[in-house]
């Protein structure tokens, strides 16, 4: 028998979360961001749930190819554009839209031989200082692009550094608006946090395209200020396993490497088949939430490579049968419907939901739920 750990992808949750984005930005077209193999979920596995999007946005040409192989004929946007000149041939062949964030990319396009004009998103660095032309240099970049026969249509984008936090987006929106005011073309500003937290404040923001990533997978972009339930999001991934052993601790007994947890009362613990080699964060310590038979309890001691320990006292106190083979939910939805948001596990480990989903290990078998 294989180890009992597995991940389950929920197409109905993806669909629900996509409709949630549409409700928040009703006038915008939605790029479903599926970079990093759909944030660890698998492009092929999320495709059905997200095919209602207006386009898919990603970084890798190979991922774009996989989308075309799945039969997607709509827009695909390369969020960082091309990395070398020959990537442009694939853009022409697969009809990919691509971002232009630097002069070198304009040079490559100017030298590219193509029959079909390219659709490009000219990116502004409005304050994040990662990719894009500064507002001062934006117009000359636009003029250069606009003069190229290789270019069919130019749209504009920028990316927010603080859509999820206190600083907000006002300063970047102002810079973007001022520099693009009289340029013709579609605009794309918001990521997930921008859509959920700011789209209603300024409707114009949401037009013409939003770029929704994390929200589609059911994680709140601004946890812990808000949780997934606050935003009405459903987990798109469940990571679950089973108990493979039980132990009885007396007061004074400890568990695991480093004896990091010592019982202060008689405690029944369960040992679950999940460890950091599965992508579960080793930095999650005692107290990290876990569901056993759908009842909320906590992790005990240090997470090891293949195993972790959980407190079964709350499960027993709830009157539930628990033993070898009992269901353990690391994040997502338990069989009884209880939900453990990935954001809570991430917070306990000092990280964010994004990192945990992307880090799901290759050794974990993944299935797609039939709705
Ligand atoms: C990843 C990414 C997004 C999506 O961000 P989320 O916070 O996951 O919604 C949007 N735009 C760009 C340019 C990105 O790289």
Written overview of the protein:
The strands form three sheets. Strands 8-7-6-5-4-3-2-9 form an eight-stranded parallel beta sheet. A six-stranded antiparallel beta barrel has the order 10-13-16-15-14-17. Strands 11-12 form a two-stranded antiparallel sheet. It is built from 13 helices and 19 strands. With 371 residues, it is α/β, with parallel strands linked by helices. Strand 3, helix 4 and strand 4 form a beta-alpha-beta unit. The protein binds pyridoxal-5'-phosphate (PLP).
Name its key features.
371 residues, alpha/beta, TIM Barrel, Lyase, Ornithine Decarboxylase, Chain A, domain 1, 2 domains, six-stranded antiparallel barrel, 13 helices, 28% helix, 24% strand, elongated, binds pyridoxal-5'-phosphate
